[in-house]
Amino acid sequence: MVMTMRSTWLALVLLIGCGGEEAANTTEPQPEAEAAPVEAEPGPRVVDPTYELVATASGPYSSGEQGTFEIRLVPRGEHHVNVDFPFAIALAGPEPVRFAETSLDREDATELTEQRARFAIPFTPGAAGEHRVTATVDFAVCTPSTCLPEQRTLALVLPVQ
Prior knowledge:
Elements: H1 2-17, E1 45-48, E2 51-57, E3 67-75, E4 80-81, E5 88-92, E6 97-99, E7 103-105, E8 111-112, E9 117-125, E10 129-142, E11 147-160
């Protein structure tokens, strides 16, 4: 009887201490926390409602001979390329690929107008194979009332014979 009264008293104290609510049942599944979005592997093309950013290779290339690939930005809809924005392109690749420069800016563009920005990227492959290179591009597209600075990474496979 003493044990029953103590159990009842303990249950009453717990209920009062919890504001009269029942204690949480720890055996019920808890809602899962939302996972952070997984970013897709970069590819040679980014399509957005405001622009299209593309890297293209014209290979196959030959080992030891200089080649080029292109990065092109084309605005969409009412957007235009912000030619005054400090464009930046950071290049990275495996050891067999040597870039003339690993960072480029707007002065390196082969074409830079409000309708398009184009960069020819020179490189020299040192070995045959398929070499994956990346380009992180900082740019901005604008409308008459807003400007949208962006940073996107493109990845491209360079086929070398």
